[in-house]
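Complex 668.
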Amino acid sequence: MEPIRKHEGLVYPLNRSNVDTDQIIPKQFLKRIERQGFGQFLFYNWRFHHDGSQKEDFSLNQPKYDGTSILVAGENFGCGSSREHAPWALEDYGFKVILAPSFADIFFNNCIKNGILAVTLPEEEISQLIQKAENETYHLTADLKNQVIYDNEGFKTSFEVNDYQKEMLINGWDDISVTLTHENKIKQYESKKVGV
Amino acid sequence: MTQPKTIVEKIWDQHVVHLEKGKPDLLYIDLHLIHEVTSPQAFEGLRMNDRSVRRPERTYATMDHNVPTRERHIIKDAVSKKQMETLKQNCDEFGIPLADIDHPDQGIVHVIGPELGLTQPGKTIVCGDSHTSTHGAFGALAFGIGTSEVEHVLATQTLWQAPPKTLNVKVNGELGTGVTAKDLILAVIGKYGVRFGTGYVIEYTGDAIRSLTMEQRMTVCNMSIEAGARAGLISPDETTVEYLRGKRHVPEGQAFDEARDEWLALASDEGAVYDHTLEIDASEIEPQVTWGTNPGMCLPVSASVPDPAEATTDNKRAEIEHALNYMDLQPNQPISDIAIEHVFIGSCTNSRISDLQKAAEIVRGKTVHSSVTAIVVPGSQSVKQQAEAEGLDVVFKQAGFEWRDAGCSMCLAMNDDVIPPGERCASTSNRNFEGRQGTDARTHLVSPEMAAAAAITGHFTDVRQFTNALQH
Ligand code: SF4
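Predicted structure with iron/sulfur cluster bound:
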């Protein structure tokens, strides 16, 4: 997993609440057995017509958002299915940071496991950021080490992150190797509680 | 006296392997259920890092999301076929028991776990599927995980988890006649929204919950995730014990009696403290129908579709407009006027034997409306077998329903069971998201009884009037 300490990028605003993982990546794309290559299917039903041509009116298709890497969305982002294909698709498309007033639990966890920084910000700040990114070419910087998000026009806000998740993200750690350092404890537990 | 505890605290305490300040707890996982869609990349990860499956005997796999529900062996989609073959290869390679497509135990993962007695009170249960909350009906702590976590559990039989907050959803009173467990949970989500459970484990308590059967409890716990909660559970009682007696993986004889005592002791103590409590009166609940594109957009069948003009905020208005547009509904249109083209009875929410029995009672001796295509997809091959032994297949087929093999089917339409664009379905499943049952398909969530009644009349019909009319 790629470490993430500080990221500066173009903001894409998605002014919708309750965006579910069926919208992020529709089920017809869950059949692949690889981890890569899901970015092309991101928000598929919003981005494409039945015949596969692009829907011009869906904002992510507009050239001004080419190269975006920071997604700002409405509350309860990532609700619904546990499919990790959702963060895979977001990551593969180029998103490194997601900002929203709230996230669904499983989705939030899945982001951390894939090196995506998901940050909860107050609703007013999110609306403000969405508005800016809708009206202009707007860049933000997310500094995980110092737990702040800022632009170069004077906006600056701090955010909360759990220490453990911060450590995992900053180091790009795979948590299986961390867990396996506790092998003795797992063995002890098993011999006591479940029998070996 | 020791501090009274909730069932969640008791299960948690029994499963902590390692505690460290500033970190989540390392929790032991008793049972890991697996299916074909969310596991391939996890096995691939194990291979890449030269890791093995720590406890294959605590792992159980089946195929459900992709499987065809008619002509089982004709898997038209090469990618689906590949995914199913990959699961088989992975289970062979790592020594994991698998109920594959030819196996008599095959079925939806959340139907077969309880059926086989793998699901038991006090267990920690995970699966790469958000409806794992279903198993909470037994007083197990069961929740959905992503594929990286699937890999983590395969390799270590543990998970890092922060202790959850607890939410007591207390359902007082008694459900009226014709009102089901599905209506109960839809009404709760309709009342409190799709986010109230986020960050919590829900414990369902109260008289109305106590009087539910195990299958009804599974329907309730199943939809906890639609309220945002990763897990929902119900303290075990005699109903739980009696359901488990004699199930294949449940201990027998004296061991059963001992297990029984342990199970019952898990129930939340009198005076246990929850982080939050919500109450609802069961007697006020009517049969429900969803009208929008998330399960919280739900109303009694006697109501009318909401009018965006009456929304209290701009955001809400936009949300309602967007949903009505997708669903092709008019503001203030009576829900009972909505005509449907499809009926789907199935999914891990409502595909167990009692669901099929109830639906069959409604359709017995009737005919499916000429403009409706209706299918019944039993939750497991063993539910199917039992239904056939009771002659339910004949009841459904004579009425004009199709009778299929077990699988997820039209709940998420990953196999060939897809609703065509623009068409409308009364579905007993759990999600009415855009495109869930097919691109541009429109889903209305209902109970099996309501789905059966809609199949006959061609539009939503209050099943209570329907049954009354039948008696007269
Ligand atoms: S029936 Fe539907 S909700 Fe249940 S496991 Fe299958 S796809 Fe998921």
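The radius of gyration of chain B is 22 Å.
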